[in-house]
Amino acid sequence: MKKALIFFMFLFSFKGFGQNKPCAEVEITDLVIRKIIIDYAGECVRENFFKENIGAVEMIDFVDTTGRRRIHLSALIDDRYKEAPPTQFADVNGNLVLIYKGDSNGNKIPASPSEELLDCLSKAVGKQLYLRPVHQPDRYFDIKDFNGKVEKRKAGLTIHGGNVWNEITYIFSSPTEYTTLRSL
Description:
The radius of gyration is 22 Å and the shape is globular. The chain is built from three helices and ten strands, in the order H-E-H-E-E-E-E-E-H-E-E-E-E. By secondary structure, it is of the alpha+beta class. The strands form two sheets. Strands 1, 2, 3, 4, 5, 6, 9 and 10 form an eight-stranded mixed β-sheet that branches. It has a two-stranded antiparallel ribbon with strand order 7-8. The relative contact order is 0.17. It has one domain. Mean pLDDT is 79; it is low at 1-18 and 157-162.
């Protein structure tokens, strides 16, 4: 009995035992970054970037080519994260934050979208984001040419994406000092 107890104590002493989740909830303990995220999420609610208070903050954390840490924040209101999923998420003051690592240019480094990862993230997201329709059919309209013949024409490019005015990048010169880049 004593040997079995020692064996189980040894087995459970490993930090990762039983935590084979493909995504992980992390805690953002840096007070400066927490304040930045809280302020940004509040701005998204005030400026209606989160529709009906549904939305999440997408965060890309990276070091640029000059060696400075940058954090890029954008508002996300639908489940487009599934195409390039993160492996980490956080809850900051009731706001869902999807956390990506980035390359030196600020591009996301996503994980491959496995079924286990997407299931883990969908449990974390819950009803915080809207669901996108699977496929929207192309839009056409009828037009008459100079002979009076009716032709169907494609309606043109429809852009489905975020809003460039809700993106902001913080460039850190020290752990507590930063400058802000915002789209105009």
